[in-house]
């Protein structure tokens, strides 16, 4: 069999693509990213989606060539099914379809067990910790109201970015692809998003439409991204809505009509979030994470604290309300609009200050040499070794690390260990049902 081909552009010999080839495999453990590991009879490693550990399946390669270290594949036929398998409730879930959900085919309890196995594997591999050593019981807790029977789907996503095809039809991106799966509804969309009726409209000349339904207010917003040279359509949805647009020249988000922000509620405070800025997507997430962080940090009167990657001020506001008139909180955030919103949101807390810039650049300029508490909620890539080194030098009594990626969390925990900190407790929350994502809160303290 010929294993190589010649590129018409370069004339160079190219390894043969294996896309479309099928293998009958026994499925092994879950891996980080929403897939499971399997090996072919020849020893090739497959990362297989739409399957579960212990199953026997036919896996069709979706990405990879003869010289690839591993292949990506979809399970297109289930020969021996797991007891945890259910029929995917969503008609748009499955091989070659929408890439938004990873575990529609698994019972809810099984999804949480799989996420727990991923967190445990990352802790062991990157931080050298067992769950017991991390102060974690190994469970992933569902959000309030999300514990549903098999076959039912929680409607939790308060922000949905729809992709629009060239004919103006609404869909969602397929897995690792720019291709669009046309849909007429999204089962995980929150009621406030679904009731807008975005999927029932045509959106000519648009590239994406993002729908936002705030938690704790009736604010609704759509953010339109036109195709190059595209003109905005007249927006007539089923509920009152503010409209913003993304400028194709600078990527800025500008108000078209209505409010330029939505109002979110958490921890008995109202937070303004402008221009499609970051806010936790699950309606229970903000309160769940604030409780976990406050229970872990146990703020005291007169404490000094840092809130790093503070966004619109969620944790800074929570700490600021608990440290009294002589305490102080400094928040650092790189997003300019988020800083404006944070300063607005926390204007009633005189002892809270927000600085604009990157954490690793701003923190040394503050002149702060010590503090009592630190909370950090970095982007998916984590904080990194240099930032962790700066933090351990401050000698905080406790540090709360909020993470949406268990690999980045485990790596940074190892850096904290090098600086003399240990994990006191770790909690994991299923704030992204049906997907592979999991949110963790680790509480660290100086090792004794």
Task: Give an overview of the whole structure.
- With 448 residues, this protein is an alpha/beta fold.
- The protein has three domains: 77 residues, OB fold (Dihydrolipoamide Acetyltransferase, E2P) (Beta Barrel), CATH 2.40.50.140; 196 residues, Rossmann fold (3-Layer(aba) Sandwich); 105 residues, OB fold (Dihydrolipoamide Acetyltransferase, E2P).
- 18% of the residues lie in helices and 31% in strands.
- It is built from eight helices and 24 strands.
- It is globular and about 65 Å long.
- The model has no long low-confidence stretch (mean pLDDT 96).
Poorly predicted sequence stretches spanning 5 or more consecutive residues = none
Number of distinct beta strands: 24
Helix percentage range: 10-25%
Looking at the structure, the CATH topology of the largest domain is: Rossmann fold
Give me the side-by-side strand order of the main sheet: 8-23-24-22-21-18-19-20
The CATH architecture category of the largest domain equals: 3-Layer(aba) Sandwich
- Main beta sheet: 8 strands, mixed
CATH superfamily of the largest domain, please?
Vaccinia Virus protein VP39
Measured between the Cα atoms of the first and last residue, the distance is 63 Å
Indicate how many domains the architecture comprises: 3
Count of helical regions: 8
How large is the radius of gyration? 23 Å
Mean pLDDT: 96
Identify the CATH class of the largest domain.
Alpha Beta
Shape: globular
Structural class: alpha/beta
Binned strand content: 25-35%
């Amino acid at each position: 069999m010929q294993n190589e081909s010649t590129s018409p552009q370069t004339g160079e010999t190219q390894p043969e693509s294996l896309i479309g080839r099928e293998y009958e495999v026994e499925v092994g453990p879950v891996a980080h990213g929403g897939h499971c590991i399997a090996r072919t009879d020849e020893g090739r490693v497959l990362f297989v989606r739409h399957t579960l550990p212990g199953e026997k399946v036919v896996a069709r390669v979706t990405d990879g060539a003869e010289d690839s270290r591993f292949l990506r594949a979809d399970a297109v036929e289930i020969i021996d099914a797991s007891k945890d398998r259910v029929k995917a409730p969503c008609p748009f879930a499955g091989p070659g379809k929408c890439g938004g959900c990873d575990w529609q085919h698994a019972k809810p309890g099984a999804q949480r067990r799989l996420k727990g196995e991923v967190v445990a594997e990352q802790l062991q591999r990157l931080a050298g910790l067992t769950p017991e050593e991390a102060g974690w019981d190994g469970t992933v807790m569902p959000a309030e109201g999300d514990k549903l029977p098999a076959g039912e789907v929680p409607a939790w996503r308060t922000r949905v970015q729809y992709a629009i095809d060239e004919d103006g039809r609404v869909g969602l991106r397929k897995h690792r692809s720019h291709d669009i799966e046309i849909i007429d509804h999204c089962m995980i969309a929150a009621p406030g998003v679904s009731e807008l009726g975005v999927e029932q409209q045509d959106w000519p000349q648009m590239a994406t439409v993002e729908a936002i339904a705030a938690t704790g207010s009736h604010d609704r917003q759509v953010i339109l991204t036109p195709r190059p040279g595209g003109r905005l359509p007249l927006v007539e949805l089923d509920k009152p809505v503010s409209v913003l647009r993304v400028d194709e020249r600078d990527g800025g988000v500008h108000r078209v009509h209505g409010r330029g922000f939505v109002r979110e509620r958490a921890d008995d405070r109202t937070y303004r979030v402008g221009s499609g800025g970051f806010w936790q997507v699950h309606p229970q997430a903000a309160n769940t994470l604030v409780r976990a962080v406050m229970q872990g940090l146990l703020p005291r009167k007169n404490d000094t604290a840092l809130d790093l990657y503070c966004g619109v001020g969620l944790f800074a506001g929570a700490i600021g309300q608990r440290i009294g008139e002589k305490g102080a909180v400094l928040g650092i955030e790189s997003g300019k609009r988020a800083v404006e919103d944070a300063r607005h949101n926390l204007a009633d807390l005189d002892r809270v200050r927000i600085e604009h810039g990157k954490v690793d650049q701003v923190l040394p300029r503050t002149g702060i040499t010590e503090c009592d508490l630190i909370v950090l909620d970095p982007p998916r890539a984590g904080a990194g070794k240099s930032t962790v080194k700066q933090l351990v030098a401050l000698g905080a009594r406790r540090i709360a690390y909020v993470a949406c990626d268990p690999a980045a969390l485990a790596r940074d925990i190892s850096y904290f260990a090098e600086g003399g900190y240990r994990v006191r407790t770790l909690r994991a929350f299923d704030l992204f049902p049906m997907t592979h994502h999991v949110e963790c809160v680790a509480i660290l303290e100086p090792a004794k």
